[in-house]
């Protein structure tokens, strides 16, 4: 019981020898040829964990005799992550009713919790809730530090704070790595964060998911086969061999089990061998063997020279054996901090000795819960912990020197030269410039993103089939309703109606782009938060990937409507018609994608999309001509995305100068005189001719195509001009989408 926290730290090379027999062979060879192994090297010696999983016997934690040589081997420079006096509060708004204020006063009086306290200077409805209260500690490479506590005690918050996921302004206290303040840019590159939820592409298999992660995170200098073997090793390491070819799955598709999914989530974040690894409850929802396996993998990562920090609920006895340090939280305060071995002494000193045969952490957590509910609260334990820590520290100084001894830059470059941080490294003067921000150039990222998205959508053919079906059904209805339109005055009105409807249909069918990004949004945020790829690459590949489908849909729609309706212009007219539809599909798709980047909710998104598209249609120029739109609304006419493709196809339709649309006798077609016999119409024409002084016979052309265009107010842009403007809108909204992602994916708590 006399071993202090410190002596445990020093013993980490010995700890690292706590491996199975199989690893032992590896360790001895390693001792001669390498310094302590990195994850990549350790992954080669896959064995005990997956064996333990497949076999029936309970995994045994082998103790290993270490010979002297492995103790004096050249060790990598140590990393120490220190955090001190971390305090984080949020403002909570609440309506103060009399009964509420009474009950909360009562609660304040009885509980020791410092949580809800009135903010100084704040009004009665705003209260400050302290989620983390003066938390200090230290984590070292080679070790797993676990944060424990009841639900709501602040575990996730502490992990978030350490992983730089809380904005600097709100978090008080300091976090240093080897004594240096951590820049967030550097932290992003050397660390990884595994969140509590699994955010994965449902239609990719386990192997593909890990492979894509490898392609993002590992540099192009590493060959494809090397990446592949790394993935294979990781699969074995995580005990995922049996599930390697199974899709991840979601609510609609049965895929891997929850525990397997959890392990995949961990796998994608450790593929590049980060120096700092943060995990929020990596073992939640796993059975005890799987949970043990996960922690075992984490131990291995730690031993490869990383700092592993995780929160954990109710660790089993075997898992506790793998943990090196623990922090127990209660309502945001530290109630114990130290190694698992010291828990019995600590609680004995506190006056609550742990009975024999009792699980230490369970006892501790139960006691903490009891104290929380008691009138005095955990205050006494918090104070006891502070004094206990002080006493330990004073004793510790007699034993060893506490300084890590190496600067951050030295430690990182030592790690890199040992093969860690596989994202590749350059020589730079500061730690930040030593490690590239992104592992790959952007075209590689784009290619990988495009490939992933193609695979994912090709496994969901019903989605594409639905889109195709919608477009074809609309096309079919339009084609049969407007079958072979003639060029009579009525035919012209029908043509106008058809063209407006066809152009707005292209926009409405684009609404399906909305859920596509919303579904990916959190995956995107998770991946970009730790620099898996650039946001720009995502935007570009997102646009590129959507294009083939749009081309296909445009072509089908153009084919099914152009000839059946009898549109003008022959083949060249068809080509222009096709391009206009494609441009409006593109503009609509970009517009909806942009909205999905701004509005994070599907239902809200649909409502807004449908409403805006309706306004676009209203102001397109079909329902009300430009010259009749009130001055104060004319700006919306120019914003209308439907206006441009509508005018483009209109010009395509009525551009032929030789074609006549209304002849003398047809002038009466849309008037009350329509039913008058032709002979009388001819007489009317004759009398009109004599009074006007112009000869109008029944076959004289009174309205040409260009007259029609003028009537419709289509006079400002040429048809190609309209086409380009439509396409430009598409690009414009893609740029806006990029900025929406840039600003909207901060992924930090305030
Ligand atoms: N924005 C916020 N406003 C008010 N209270 C908050 C806010 N965010 C978190 N909390 C509270 O902070 C406390 C700590 O939350 P945290 O997520 O860290 O708990 P936890 O220990 O991880 O719990 P669990 O084990 O259930 O995951 C909880 O009581 C939670 O309700
Ligand atoms: Mg949590």
UniProtKB/TrEMBL annotation:
A Pfam match: ABC2_membrane
Molecular function terms from GO: ABC-type transporter activity; ATP binding; ATP hydrolysis activity
Keyword Endoplasmic reticulum: no
Segments for region (Disordered): 101-128
Topology term for the membrane: Multi-pass membrane protein
Domain ABC transporter: 93-356
PROSITE patterns reported for this sequence: ABC_TRANSPORTER_1, ABC_TRANSPORTER_2
GO cellular component term of the entry, any: membrane
Name of the protein this chain belongs to: ATP-binding cassette
CDD domains recorded: ABCG_EPDR
Segments traversing the membrane: 465-485, 497-518, 539-562, 574-595, 602-624, 723-744
Alphabetized UniProt keyword annotations: ATP-binding, Membrane, Nucleotide-binding, Transmembrane, Transmembrane helix, Transport
Compartments it resides in: Membrane
InterPro entries linked to this entry: AAA+_ATPase, ABC2_TM, ABC_transporter-like_ATP-bd, ABC_transporter-like_CS, ABCG_dom, ABCG_transporters, P-loop_NTPase
């Amino acid at each position: 019981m006399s071993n202090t926290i410190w002596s445990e730290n020093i013993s980490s090379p010995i700890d690292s020898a706590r491996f199975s027999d199989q690893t032992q062979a590896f360790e001895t060879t390693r001792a001669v040829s390498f310094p302590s192994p990195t994850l990549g090297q350790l992954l080669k010696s896959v064995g005990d964990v997956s064996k333990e999983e497949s076999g029936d016997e309970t995994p045994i934690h082998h103790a290993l005799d270490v010979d002297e040589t492995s103790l004096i081997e050249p060790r990598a420079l140590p990393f120490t992550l220190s955090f001190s006096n971390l305090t984080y509060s949020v403002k909570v708004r609440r309506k103060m009713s009399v009964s509420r204020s009474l009950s909360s006063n009562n609660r304040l009086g009885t509980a020791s919790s410092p949580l809800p306290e009135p903010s100084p200077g704040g009004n009665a409805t705003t209260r400050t809730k302290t989620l983390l209260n003066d938390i200090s500690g230290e984590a070292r490479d080679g070790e797993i530090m676990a944060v424990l506590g009841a639900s709501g005690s602040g575990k996730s918050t502490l992990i978030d704070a350490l992983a730089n996921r809380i904005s600097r302004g709100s978090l008080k206290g300091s976090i240093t790595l080897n004594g240096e303040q951590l820049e967030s840019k550097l932290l992003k590159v050397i660390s990884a964060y595994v969140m509590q939820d699994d955010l994965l592409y449902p239609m990719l298999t386990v192997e593909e998911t890990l492979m894509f992660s490898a392609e993002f995170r590992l540099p192009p200098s590493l060959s494809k086969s090397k990446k592949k073997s790394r993935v294979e090793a990781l699969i074995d390491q995580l005990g995922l061999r049996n599930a390697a070819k199974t899709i991840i799955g979601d609510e609609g598709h049965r895929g891997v089990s929850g525990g397997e999914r959890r392990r995949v989530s961990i796998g994608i974040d450790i593929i590049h061998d980060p120096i700092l690894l943060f995990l929020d409850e990596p073992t939640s929802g796993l059975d005890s063997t799987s949970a043990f396996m996960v922690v075992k993998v984490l131990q291995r990562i730690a031993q490869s020279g990383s700092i592993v920090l995780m929160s954990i609920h109710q660790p089993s006895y075997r898992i506790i054996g793998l943990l090196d340090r623990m922090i127990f939280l209660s309502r945001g305060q530290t109630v114990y901090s130290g190694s698992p071995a010291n828990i019995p002494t600590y609680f004995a000193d506190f006056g609550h000795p742990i009975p024999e045969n009792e699980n230490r952490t369970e006892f501790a957590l139960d006691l903490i819960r009891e104290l929380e509910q008691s009138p005095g609260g955990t205050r006494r334990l918090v104070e006891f912990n502070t004094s206990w820590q002080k006493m330990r520290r004073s004793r510790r100084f007699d034993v060893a020197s506490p300084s890590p001894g190496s600067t951050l830059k030295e430690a990182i470059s030592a790690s890199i030269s040992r093969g860690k941080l596989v994202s590749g490294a350059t020589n730079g003067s500061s730690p930040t410039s030593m490690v590239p921000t992104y592992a790959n150039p952007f075209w590689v990222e784009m290619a990988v993103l495009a490939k992933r998205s193609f695979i994912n959508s090709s496994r969901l053919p019903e989605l594409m089939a639905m889109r195709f079906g919608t477009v074809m059904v609309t096309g079919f209805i339009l084609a049969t309703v407007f079958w072979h339109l003639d060029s009579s005055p009525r035919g012209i009105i029908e043509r106008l109606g058809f063209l407006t409807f066809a152009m707005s249909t292209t926009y409405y069918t684009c609404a399906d782009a909305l859920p596509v990004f919303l579904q990916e949004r959190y995956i995107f945020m998770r991946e970009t938060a730790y620099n898996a790829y650039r946001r720009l690459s995502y935007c570009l590949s997102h646009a590129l990937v959507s294009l083939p489908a749009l081309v296909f849909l445009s072509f089908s729609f153009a084919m099914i409507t152009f000839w059946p309706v009898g549109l003008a212009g022959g083949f060249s007219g068809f080509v222009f018609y096709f391009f206009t539809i494609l441009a409006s599909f593109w503009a609509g798709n970009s517009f909806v994608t942009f909205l999905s980047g701004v509005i994070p909710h599907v239902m809200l998104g649909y409502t807004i999309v449908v409403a805006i598209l309706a306004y676009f249609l209203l102001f397109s120029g079909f329902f009300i001509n430009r010259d009749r739109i009130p001055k104060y609304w004319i700006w919306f006419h120019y914003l209308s995305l439907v206006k441009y493709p509508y005018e483009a196809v209109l010009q395509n339709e009525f551009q032929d100068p030789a074609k006549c649309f209304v002849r003398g006798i047809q002038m009466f077609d849309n008037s009350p005189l329509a039913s008058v016999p032709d002979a009388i119409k001819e007489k009317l024409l004759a009398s009109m001719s004599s009074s006007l002084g112009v000869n109008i016979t029944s076959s004289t052309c009174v309205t040409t195509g260009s007259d029609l265009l003028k009537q419709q107010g289509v006079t400002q842009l040429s048809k190609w001009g309209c086409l380009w403007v439509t396409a430009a809108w598409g690009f414009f909204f893609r740029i806006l989408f990029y900025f929406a992602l840039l600003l909207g994916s901060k992924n930090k708590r305030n």
